[in-house]
Write a structure and sequence with these properties.
By secondary structure, the chain is mainly alpha-helical. Helices cover 62% and strands 3% of the residues. It is built from 23 helices and 6 strands.
Length: 556
C-alpha cells in the first residue's frame, strides 16, 4: 500500500499544496544568505601596516610603511602586511637599513576600503598570524550545518516535520540578530555555529516536506524549484552587500525579515505522510480533507480506517545494516553528498579569490546556479535522475580540472578562461546538487527518509567543512601549484563521484518507497535494460488510479 495513491483524489499539486510549498521555500532564501554571508563579513581586503604601528623609535626615525616601489634592499625579505622596518631617508633616495632586532610586528593596519567599509575581520584585525581565524569561523558554521543536518533529521522523523522546522526558524533568526552586536571572537564563532545548525534543519526538513507534499508527476518541479530560492538568496545577498558595506548593518538587514517565519506555527500543517507512518491516521485525514477542500476536489471520509499505510512501529536507520546492498547504496550516496557539497560550496567561497569585483563575481557564480537548476528541469523529465546526476557532476569535474590549463600553459593573458571554466564547474555542481536532493529523497523510504537525508547531508557538510581549507590553500602553497590545487581537488573528487553513481538505481516515475521492503524492490530493478518497462508500468499505474471511482480503493 502506498500513500502516493491519495494524490489521485486531492490532486498532484493543487492550490493548497502550492501555498504550503511556498511557505517552506521562502526560508531557503535566508538559508543561502546565512551560508555564504561569511564571504562578505569575513572578507580580508588588501592591507598594510599602519605608520603608527610602532610607539617607540630607537633609531630616531623616520618610520614609514614600506612599499614595493621604495624598497630596494638586496637579499632582504620585506613583509609589507605584517611587519614594519626601521628606515632612514637621505636627500636623493630612500635607503632601507635592516638592523638586527629592528623588524617590528604590526599592531595596527590600514585597509583598502574600495569594496568594504568595515568587515568583522577588519574590525578585529584578523590578519597576519590571525588570518586563519576567518577560516575557523567558516568551518564552525559548516560544523553547525553538519550537526544540524544529522540531529534535525532524526528529530524530524521522531517528533515531526513541523516542530523541527519551527526550531530551526527560531535558531536562524534570533541568534543572528544578536551577532551584529558581538565583537568577542569566541561568542561570534559560537553564534555562527548555531546559525549553521539552523540552516541544516531548514534545508533538510523543508526539502522533505516539499517532496512529501506533492504527487509523483510534480515531484521534479518541487525538488528543483526549491533550489531556485537558494540561488535567489545568494543573488540578493550580493546586491545587499554591494549597497551595505558595513558588516553589522548588512547582517541586520538580511536577518530581521526572517522573524516573519515565526508565524508558521499557525500557518504550516504537519506532513500527512509522516502522521500516517506514525499511526495518526485521523490527524492525517483532517489535513488531507482540508487540502482537498482548497483544491476543489473530494476525498472519501474514513479512508484510512480500512487502509493503514504503515503500523506505528518505529523503524531505525540502522535497520539497513541487515542488507549489504542497501548499505553499499548508502555509502555511494554519502560520498556523492560529500564531494558535491565540497565542490558546490568551495566554488562559491572561491569567488572572493577571483580577479575583479567580489560583488560581480559572487553574483555571476550565483546566477550560474540558476542555469544549472533550470537544466535539471529540462533533462530530468527526459533522462531521469541517475544519468542527469552523473553527467552534471562529471562536467563539473572536467571543468574544474581544466582550470589548470590557462594557469600553467597559457599565461596571464588567458586568465579569463579560468573564470569561464570555474563558472561551467559551478553550473554542473549546481545541477548535480539539485538532482542529489531529489534523488536521495526518492530513494529512501518514508520510515527513515528524514534520518537518512540527515545522515547524507551530515556528510555533505563534512565536505563543506573541508571547502574553506581547500580554497585557502592559495595562501599556503606557492606558485602555480597553489593557484590550481584547489580546483584540481574539486575536479578529481567530482569525477570519482560520477563513476561511483552508476551503482545506484533509477527512481523516475516510481512511487516513493514507504518501507524498507519497498526500498529493496528498487534494488531489484536496477538493470538498465528494464528501466523503460518499469517506467511504463509506473505510468500505467498512475493512470489507473486516476480512473478509479470511490468504489475502488486507490491503495491496492
Amino acid at each position: 500500500m502506498h500513500y502516493d495513491g491519495v494524490f489521485s483524489y486531492i490532486g498532484q499539486f493543487g492550490r493548497y499544496q502550492k501555498f504550503v510549498y511556498l511557505l517552506i521555500c521562502v526560508p531557503q532564501i535566508f538559508s543561502a544568505i546565512q551560508t555564504l554571508l561569511s564571504v562578505f563579513i569575513l572578507h580580508i581586503p588588501k592591507h598594510r601596516c599602519h605608520p603608527d604601528s610602532i610607539i617607540s623609535k630607537p633609531l630616531g626615525g623616520p618610520y614609514q610603511v614600506p612599499t614595493i616601489d621604495n624598497i630596494k634592499p638586496n637579499n632582504v625579505t620585506v613583509h609589507l602586511q605584517c611587519e614594519i622596518l626601521n628606515m632612514r631617508q637621505n636627500s636623493t633616495e630612500i635607503e632601507v637599513k635592516v638592523l638586527q632586532n629592528m623588524i617590528y610586528r604590526c599592531s595596527k593596519w590600514e585597509y583598502d576600503r574600495t569594496y568594504f567599509e568595515m568587515t568583522y575581520a577588519m574590525e578585529n584585525n584578523l590578519v597576519c598570524e590571525r588570518k586563519t581565524d576567518t577560516t575557523l569561523v567558516m568551518v564552525l558554521f559548516m560544523a553547525g550545518f553538519t550537526a544540524g543536518s544529522l540531529l534535525t533529521g532524526i528529530m524530524s522523523d521522531a517528533f515531526g516535520r513541523k516542530k523541527t522546522l519551527m526550531t530551526s526558524i527560531v535558531l536562524i533568526s534570533i541568534p543572528n540578530i544578536i551577532l551584529s552586536f558581538v565583537s568577542n571572537f569566541v561568542v561570534f564563532g559560537t553564534l555562527r555555529f548555531i546559525s549553521g545548525f539552523a540552516v541544516g534543519g531548514l534545508l533538510g526538513t523543508g526539502y522533505v516536506i516539499g517532496v512529501e507534499l506533492v504527487g509523483p508527476e510534480k515531484r521534479i518541479w518541487a525538488g528543483i524549484i526549491f533550489e531556485f530560492f537558494w540561488a535567489a538568496g545568494e543573488m540578493l545577498l550580493a546586491l545587499a552587500a554591494y549597497y551595505i558595506r558595513n558588516w553589522k548593518y548588512l547582517n541586520l538587514v538580511v536577518t530581521i525579515p526572517s522573524l516573519i517565519f515565526l508565524s508558521y506555527i499557525w500557518l504550516l500543517p504537519e506532513s500527512p505522510r509522516w502522521l500516517l507512518v506514525k499511526g495518526r491516521a485521523k490527524e492525517a485525514e483532517e489535513i488531507l480533507q482540508k487540502t482537498a477542500k482548497y483544491n476543489k476536489t473530494s476525498l472519501p471520509h474514513n479512508l484510512f480506517e480500512k487502509h493503514y499505510l504503515e503500523s506505528n512501529q518505529t523503524v531505525h536507520i540502522w535497520t539497513i545494516c541487515r542488507y549489504p546492498k542497501l548499505v553499499l547504496e548508502c555509502l555511494v550516496i554519502i560520498y556523492d553528498w560529500m564531494m558535491t557539497s565540497m565542490v558546490f560550496y568551495g566554488l562559491g567561497m572561491n569567488a572572493g579569490n577571483l580577479a575583479g569585483s567580489i560583488y560581480l563575481n559572487f553574483f555571476m557564480q550565483s546566477f550560474a546556479e540558476v542555469i544549472g537548476f533550470a537544466g535539471c528541469i529540462a533533462f530530468l523529465h527526459k533522462f531521469g535522475r541517475k544519468p542527469v546526476f552523473i553527467v552534471s557532476i562529471e562536467i563539473s569535474g572536467i571543468a574544474c580540472l581544466a582550470t589548470f590549463i590557462p594557469v600553467v600553459y597559457l599565461g596571464p593573458d588567458y586568465q579569463w578562461l579560468t573564470l569561464v571554466f570555474a563558472t561551467i564547474g559551478k553550473i554542473g555542481a549546481s545541477c548535480a546538487f539539485a538532482v542529489l536532493f531529489l534523488y536521495s529523497g526518492e530513494i529512501f523510504p518514508t520510515v527513515i527518509r528524514n534520518s537518512a537525508l540527515g545522515i547524507g547531508t551530515f556528510f555533505a557538510r563534512a565536505g563543506g567543512m573541508a571547502a574553506p581549507y581547500i580554497v585557502n590553500m592559495v595562501m599556503h602553497v606557492e606558485g602555480d601549484l597553489g593557484k590550481t590545487l584547489p580546483m584540481v581537488i574539486f575536479g578529481v573528487s567530482s569525477v570519482i563521484a560520477g563513476l561511483l553513481s552508476f551503482y545506484l538505481p533509477e527512481t523516475r516515475h516510481k512511487d516513493l518507497p514507504e518501507s524498507i521492503e519497498d526500498w529493496l524492490s528498487y534494488t531489484k530493478n536496477t538493470d538498465i535494460s528494464r528501466n523503460k518497462q518499469i517506467e511504463t508500468e509506473s505510468l500505467q499505474k498512475i493512470q489507473e488510479l486516476r480512473a478509479e471511482t470511490s468504489e475502488r480503493d486507490p491503495f491496492i
